[in-house]
Amino acid sequence: MTTVSVLPLAGKTALITGATSGIGLVTARELARRGARVVLVGRDADKAARAQQAIQLAAGPEALVHVKCFDLSLLRNVHRLAGEMHQEFEKLDILINNAGIMPGHFALTDEGHELCWATNHLAPYALTNLLLPLLDAAGRARVVTVSSVAHWVGEIEPDRNVRNSPDNYSWLTAYADSKLANILFTKELAHRLDLTGITANCLHPGLVDTGLMRPDTSAVMKALWWMARPAMTSPELGAQTTLHLATSPEVANQSGRYFANSKPARCSGRASSAQEASRLWRISAEETGVE
């Protein structure tokens, strides 16, 4: 009698943003290897096609790999992505908000949002909320958001006009603020989903050698990045905490927590504030039009 092994994530669907390189690509590949149907989201169609091919090669011809090409710095694209997911899928078991940028020079999207804030925070806030019906339909689902230890120097500016002013802009504070927002969003989301089967957690992946640098990233940041490269870890190691939160039975009932090295970690006082989390939610709802 022949026994058929069942992959641990067979029958589950996972969506990963920023999945065409780095941590996102490794995460998508490993979820596919474990049997999940994976939806890759990236901005570049050529990179997305190469990522799809690489995952298919690694996970086998039976792997189910879908590609969605959207620039998620634009909220209209977030809505389009969510709309397509609702049309094509009945449920979503795992949502990984991995896409993020290290900002360069000050830039506004054509929707009027500072680029780093739009990409790193508003997009995951809006996408997660728009996909909640699919997550709820899964019965037990997980939302995983990639943050950073940089959140320790972050602060949420409530005035959008101040945040969108080049006079007040710094690439470091823009990035740190968005990473703080990731944690506060996760904590408030977990609070709001407390009586559901959906959990929400976030993480610091470590100092990982990825494609986070943009062409317009400041010369200072590029220099610091290259100096730090010898101490950086690989995307394979950087993806481990994400995969732990997305798949491990150990965290199935944990929600609203910040992790590093696959363990609960200490976050800043601001990141621990329920008042700050509630305030950020109101700001995000106003700026995105998504509640």
TrEMBL record:
It is an enzyme of class 1 (oxidoreductase). InterPro entries: NAD(P)-bd_dom_sf (IPR036291), SDR_fam (IPR002347). It holds the Pfam family adh_short. GO terms for molecular function: oxidoreductase activity. Its EC number is 1.-.-.-. Transmembrane segments: none annotated. Keywords: Oxidoreductase. Belongs to the short-chain dehydrogenases/reductases (SDR) family. This is SDR family oxidoreductase.
